[in-house]
């Protein structure tokens, strides 16, 4: 009887180490209450972005000089058949924030949104009497974010649209592991030659007010490990003799207690 009670106490002791308050997200959000979205999210073009710019009109031959050719990338073979994927070549935004667009020449695009660049190209085509009814489509070809640290599936992820939130990025990476610190999720962002690191507490609704809640291209999300994970790492690498000795001491005390109560 005493042996069962002792084992039960040990189970409760070890399972109670992680409180629900440490792992639950958005704990202070009021249910059923609508919240205003304070930010109007816009993806801004930066240097090193790769842009797809397609021009169309009623007379397709007029748009041909403004469009990059399609290229085929070899992916491998299956049963002797060549597999490939087609994609359009893109315009790389140089260090000065410029692209070299056919006929229109050099254009400064850094700091613009996709729609602003679309309108600018349309205006130039019409003003130059090149195309009367242009349809311009601008897309990002290298919009990606990276998630690392204590998540289930760390890695880099290509984003097909223009909008991704911090929570969506963590979902793509399989969510945080039980060892991830919910109050120390960092977003590393490089902009205008400067690097900023902003930490977030996923347990608080203040997350929605962060300037990094909506991620930008090439952002890096890093989830710090908690003390339990750090301790495991130290033990596995045999770097902490004190931890080993403490563990052995606790184990010896527990065994002694169980033996005493079972008599």
Please tell me how large the radius of gyration is.
28 Å
Oligomer: single chain
CATH homologous superfamily identity of the largest domain: Outer membrane lipoprotein wza domain like
The main sheet comes to: 5 strands, mixed
Series of H and E elements: HHEHEEEEEHEEEHEEEHH
Q: First CA to last CA: what distance?
A: 10 Å
Instruction: Give helix % range.
Output: 25-40%
CATH architecture of the largest domain: Roll
Q: Structural class of the secondary structure composition? A: alpha+beta
List unreliable stretches of 5+ residues.
Answer: 10-16
Order of the strands making up the biggest sheet: 9-8-12-10-11
The number of E-state strands comes to 12
Number of helices, where a helix is a run of at least 4 consecutive DSSP H or I residues: 7
What is the beta-strand fraction?
Answer: 25-35%
Overall average pLDDT: 80
Number of separate domains: 2
* Name of the top-level CATH class of the largest domain: Alpha Beta
Gross morphology:
elongated
CATH topology of the largest domain: Outer membrane lipoprotein wza fold like
């Amino acid at each position: 009887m005493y042996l069962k009670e002792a084992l039960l106490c040990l189970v409760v002791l070890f399972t109670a180490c992680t409180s629900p308050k440490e792992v639950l997200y958005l704990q202070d959000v009021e249910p059923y209450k609508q919240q205003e979205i304070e930010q109007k999210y816009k993806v801004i073009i930066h240097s090193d972005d790769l842009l797809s710019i397609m021009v169309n009109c009623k007379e397709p031959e007029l748009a041909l000089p403004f469009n990059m050719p399609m290229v085929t990338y070899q992916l491998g073979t299956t049963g002797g058949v060549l597999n490939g994927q087609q994609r359009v070549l893109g315009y790389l935004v140089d260090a000065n924030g410029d692209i070299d667009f056919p006929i229109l020449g050099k254009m400064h695009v850094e700091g613009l949104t996709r729609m602003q660049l679309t309108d600018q190209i349309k205006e130039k085509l019409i003003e130059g009497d090149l195309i009367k009814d242009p349809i311009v489509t601008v897309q990002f070809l290298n919009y990606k974010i990276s998630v690392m640290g204590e998540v289930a599936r760390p890695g880099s992820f290509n984003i097909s649209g223009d909008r991704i939130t911090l929570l969506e990025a963590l979902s793509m990476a399989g969510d945080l592991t039980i060892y991830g610190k919910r109050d120390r999720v960092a977003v590393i962002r490089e902009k205008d030659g400067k690097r900023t690191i902003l930490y977030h507490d996923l347990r608080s609704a203040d997350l929605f007010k962060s300037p990094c809640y909506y991620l930008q291209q090439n952002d890096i999300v890093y989830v710090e490990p908690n003390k339990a994970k750090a301790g495991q790492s130290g033990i596995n690498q045999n770097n902490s003799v004190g931890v080993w000795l403490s563990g052995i001491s606790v184990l010896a005390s527990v065994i002694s207690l169980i033996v005493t109560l079972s008599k």
